[in-house]
């Protein structure tokens, strides 16, 4: 039976072949640069995708919360890194998980470092998150006083050990010159490595964001990369030049419920509760909440003439339809929507359907 026969309401499709191609390409890039690939699984949040990743030599992963770490614990990962400034209220949860799973956390201040030093019952590694221009979070790259204060406090305990420096140059999402950002980020990590390597000979440096890791070829002496969105990609990444539309591995299947040919609009069951509300802007100022594709037995096909979701509400989506689409579609058909932000869409949908018609797990599933 075709996977299409399983669908009666909005359903997130996952193309295993495309996902594996994305995993292999990034793993090959990491290998070429003699780096370890530690992908951020906030995008996929799936044991099944994790098993695929292991086939490409991936042994460690990154997550964005202790809840997500708990989901992945006990599934054969050599280490799970929680890449969010650690929340001190979750120290006891961390203790519970660290009893049986190698974990590392992200530290940016003395207060949390001190709490972990005093209260950890099992070994936990930590990265100091560095801010070299993004401005969201992290220790300023030249704030050696704070870096050394964190290191001093960590040394007072027996269970908190320093792994290295973590840098997320997230401004690659809104600044066109990604090479310049990476030159600055790589230089910052190299400077820190050289400064602290004598005292901490095993320290590593990690950099991670999908736009940069997708297009940069030379990572200098950075040891590890940790992109996440590359596993699925999405239309935002296409817009940023990280990938091609053909590289997007997920599509939201939506039922067509009405067609207004005079207005060149198609109403679908698929809105903000399914896609989230991430948006791109077309050259004429029209909002774009997702790109339309035709669903086929073997996956999906990109139309010659573009159509896209021009507006969404909670459950509704209105497609700005091309003449090609209007000539092919009828009420009751299914269309595919390539999401603007696949991480958020996956989080909304909480599971996937493979092209073989099998459900694929997600951390948020009931």
List key phrases describing it.
D-amino_acid_metab_enzyme; Lyase, Ornithine Decarboxylase, Chain A, domain 1; 12 helices; alpha/beta; 2 domains; 9-stranded parallel β-sheet; single chain; EC 5.1.1.1; 10-stranded mixed β-sheet; 366 residues; Alanine racemase
Question: Can you characterise this structure?
Answer:
- Its EC number is 5.1.1.1.
- Keywords: Isomerase, Lyase.
- Residues 249-356 form the D-serine dehydratase-like domain.
- It is an enzyme of class 5 (isomerase).
- There is one protein chain.
- By secondary structure, the protein is an alpha/beta fold.
- It folds into two domains: 3-12 and 244-360, D-serine dehydratase-like domain (Lyase, Ornithine Decarboxylase, Chain A, domain 1, Beta Barrel); 64-227, TIM Barrel (Alpha-Beta Barrel).
- It contains twelve helices and 21 strands.
- The strands form three sheets. Strands 1, 11, 12, 15, 16, 17, 18, 19, 20 and 21 form a ten-stranded mixed beta sheet that branches. Strands 2, 3, 4, 5, 6, 7, 8, 9 and 10 form a nine-stranded parallel beta sheet that branches.
- Helix 5 (110-119) runs parallel beside helix 6.
- It is elongated and about 70 Å long.
């Amino acid at each position: 039976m075709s996977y299409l026969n399983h669908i009666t309401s909005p359903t997130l499709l996952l193309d295993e072949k495309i996902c594996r191609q994305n995993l292999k390409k990034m793993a090959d890039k990491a290998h070429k640069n003699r780096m370890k690939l530690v992908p951020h699984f906030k995008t996929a949040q799936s044991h099944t995708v994790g098993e695929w990743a292991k086939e490409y030599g991936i042994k460690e992963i990154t997550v964005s919360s202790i809840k997500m770490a708990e989901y992945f614990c006990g599934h054969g990962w050599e280490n799970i890194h929680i890449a969010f400034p650690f929340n001190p209220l979750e120290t006891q949860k961390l203790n519970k998980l660290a009893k049986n799973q190698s974990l590392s956390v992200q530290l940016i201040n003395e207060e949390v470092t001190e709490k972990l030093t005093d209260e950890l019952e099992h070994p936990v590694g930590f990265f100091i998150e560095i801010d070299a221009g993004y401005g969201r979070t992290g220790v300023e790259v030249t704030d050696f006083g704070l870096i050394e204060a964190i290191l001093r406090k960590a040394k007072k305990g027996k269970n908190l050990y320093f792994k290295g420096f973590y840098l997320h140059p997230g401004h690659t999402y809104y600044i066109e010159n990604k090479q310049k950002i990476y030159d600055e980020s790589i230089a910052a990590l190299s400077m820190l490595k050289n400064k602290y390597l004598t005292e901490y000979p095993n320290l590593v440096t990690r950099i991670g964001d999908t736009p940069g890791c997708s297009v940069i070829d030379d990572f200098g002496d950075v040891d590890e990369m940790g992109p996440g969105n590359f596993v699925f990609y999405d239309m935002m990444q296409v817009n940023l030049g990280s990938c091609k539309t053909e590289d997007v591995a997920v599509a939201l299947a939506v039922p067509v419920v009405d067609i207004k040919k005079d207005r060149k609009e198609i109403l679908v069951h698929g809105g903000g509760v399914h896609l989230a509300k991430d948006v791109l802007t077309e050259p004429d100022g029209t909002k774009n909440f997702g790109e339309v594709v035709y669903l086929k037995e073997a996956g999906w096909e990109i139309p010659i003439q573009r159509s896209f979701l021009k507006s969404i509400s909670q459950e509704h989506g209105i497609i700005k339809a091309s003449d090609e689409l209007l000539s092919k579609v009828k009420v009751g058909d299914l269309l595919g929507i390539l999401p603007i932000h696949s991480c958020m869409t996956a989080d909304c949908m909480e599971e996937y359907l493979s092209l073989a018609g099998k459900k694929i797990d997600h951390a948020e599933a009931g």
